[in-house]
Amino acid sequence: MKSNLLRPCAETLVRFARAQVAAALVLVACPTMAAEPPLFRDPAQPVEKRVADLISRLTLEEKATLLNHRGPTVERFGIRSDQWNQCLHGVWWTEPTTMFPVSIAMAATWDLKLMHEVATAISDEARAIYNGWHLNPNFKGEKKGLIYRAPVINISRNPYWGRINECYGEDPFLCGRLAVAFVQGLQGNDPKYLKLAATLKHYAVNNVEQDRQKLNAVVPERLLHEYWLPHFRDAVVEGKAQSLMASYNALNGTPNNINHWLLTDLLKNEWQHEGFVVSDLGGVNTMVNGHFGKQMTYVDAVAQSLMAGCDFSDKEFMEHIPAAVREGKLTEARLNDALARVLRVRFRLGEFEPFDAVPFSKISTNAICSPQHRQLALRTAREAIVLLRNQDKFLPLDKTKLKTLAVIGPHANLFTAGGYSGKAVNPVNPLQGLKNRVAPGTEILHVIGGEIAPPRPPRNRPAPKPLDKEAELRQAAEAAKKADVAVVFVGTTLDIEAEGRDRTTLALPGNQEELVKTVLAANPRTVVVLMSAGPLAVPWIKDHAPALLQAWWLGEEGGHAIADVLFGDANPAGRLPFTVYASDSQVPPQDEYDITKGFTYLYLNSPPLFAFGHGLSYTGFRYANLKLSPEALPGDGTVTASVEVENTGSRAGDEVVQLYVRDRESRVKRPAKELRGFKRVTLQPGAKTTVTFTLPAAKLAFYDERKHAFVVEPGAFEIMVGASSEDIRLKKTLQVTRGGVFRR
Fold it and tell me: What is the pLDDT at residue 744?
């Protein structure tokens, strides 16, 4: 494949010489070039000058080609257009890469340092792939660029949403903190060069799959700023994400692809985003064939997209930009601005430098699927598992006392990778993980027992034989009776919840709940493990199973992680990044975007099955001495909150300390509590630590629709610290002495 430098020059540059020698060879290999290379090829020049120089050399058609994110190479300069890929929880590639737990599982770790480590490992593998095909023309696998479409930071406002496996949960503060950590891990910390370019998806108010190409999200102004946008701002302003993807949906009547307020006024002007906006795949097409019902031409759709602030798109940009300019519908100044935004990122990625000049060129292909990354995948999977219930300390199991273990359920011998997943090397499913971790001599009885959903026949093949459900239930009961303990693995797959496929119920699909009831009747010493992305409402199981785990889709080491938690080799400390509603009656309608009407932990009117932030441990933690400094402050001040946390049990363990706030005296409806800080800490038995949070008064604000700004009102605020949104251990009152106004 052609290099990003002039083709003959690049091969000479990367294969046969160091940069100084290569510079001499360039003149020999490229006689058409002047003795002095063009300014845009000069690494000593400022990026802005180099970008401007390259743009000045391009024809209108070449500019259009470089704004097609799946376009051909611009032959005159040897510049590839197709430069993007995916990496939600590992690099999506034609060859194996390390597969980490899905995004919602990583969110359940509530561990920012770990999130950054995972993103760093993913970007190491992405750069290693890029380096491999630059250094070796025979390097295996599809050639990939350095613009990566991750992370997905849409809010899971509706628990039916099919893409919850890709996101970070229902709370904008949690999503924002995780997004910043992930983006910074992907992009690296070099002052000059980007490691990768992260793309935030999907901007904005995107969390419904049905009719998403023509959906109109109607959102009150206050909720838009308080709930739907803060995490995007965090990832742009603090995380410095280089790109955002405009989502298919419209927002308050305007399709996001042509929403000037969203893409330019807010993002580029107010938030000072210097990168680019890319449409979702087919974004221009959705306006012609979706939102406007073929009442808009492609030339108009392209022109309006660019003029609104969309910089990068599909073939429609390449095909129709020239006509849009010639017809006066698209200004050349705006076209050049879009191109400059895209090229600026590519220059910072080092695409136009001598290969060796970029520090990330030293990352070896040995990073791909390295033992260190696999160990990190295991640690992440362990940290993600949430212990939902543990009656009478049923867990952990003593493996030395288990003679027979029944491993039951359709998820026991199944590996679910998740959306936008690459290829995993020898992924470990739950059954294999337990086999690898049990004590020698332990007998494992395995029965499928039930069905997640009727199997879909493979293409051009006969439908598989249907499962004999009654026979499977009988076998499950028989195995459970023979075992000292039964472990039942139930949940969902991408056939149930995925891109393009929302759920219609929070109940376990298929006959899986019947399976759990059958096994518990046969052997009350039963652990239930939920393998899903979105929440599952299982009140009967919560009331009857002695132990219940939320284990997600955990990546290549998931089976080992589950076994480690069951046997006590890892102490669970995952926390729910969303509310598990008690029933479908609590779920908001898909077209209801005003959460103040009783949705999410912020405004829920009735008790959930499991609260946001919930998660148990095999040890105990005591909270003491909550202190605020100062206890009164003006509306533009900052308060420090500190609390002592002590491990009172006999096992080492992690605690996720959570800080929430509540406005006691607001003139508008405010949340019952809002997350405003969290820290995951590790403590040995008997050890204690002081956890400190910094809370700017701006984080106490609400969005005032009259002032179109965030406002802090004077009055009393409750500062709460605890182990979940419902397990509050300590409270203090903070007095705000005067108000403040913030534009953010």
Answer: 64
